């Protein structure tokens, strides 16, 4: 299934119904995305609202994660858009995430532990 996140407008907010229509996906899929970490607008429960920007961000990250396989010591660099190694001494553990700086571009990288 190909999802075209270009169809989402950054500056508007979407209900689940609108999102599923815009991307031609099932509403269940949209709920699964929320469980997987797509941000919703706080306080909006009925209906749930999601910012276009957050939808795009989520879908793009998801696409990258699918394509890129990381080995145990690699991180996904959001600037290089590929797997990269951390700069020596830059790895920090914050909650359930490991944060580091990219050896190539010095950009921020993270991975879930
Ligand atoms: Zn990088």
Describe the structure in brief:
Helices cover 29% and strands 24% of the residues. With 113 residues, the chain is an alpha+beta fold. The protein folds into 2 domains: 63 residues, Winged helix-like DNA-binding domain superfamily/Winged helix DNA-binding domain (Arc Repressor Mutant, subunit A, Orthogonal Bundle); 39 residues, no CATH class.
Count of domain modules: 2
In total, how many beta strands? 7
CATH homology superfamily of the largest domain: Winged helix-like DNA-binding domain superfamily/Winged helix DNA-binding domain
Q: What is the CATH architecture assignment of the largest domain?
A: Orthogonal Bundle
Rg over alpha carbons: 16 Å
Summing up helix and strand content along with how strands pair, one would put the structural category as alpha+beta
Largest beta sheet, briefly? 5 strands, antiparallel
What percentage of amino acids are in beta strands? 15-25%
N/C terminus separation: 28 Å
Task: Summarize the amount of helix as a percent range.
Answer: 25-40%
User: Helical region count?
Assistant: 3
Neighbour order of strands in the largest sheet: 4-3-7-6-5
CATH first level of the largest domain: Mainly Alpha
What is the N-to-C order of secondary-structure elements (H for helix, E for strand)?
Answer: EHHEHEEEEE
Mean model confidence by pLDDT: 90
Q: What coarse outline follows from CA principal-axis ratios?
A: elongated
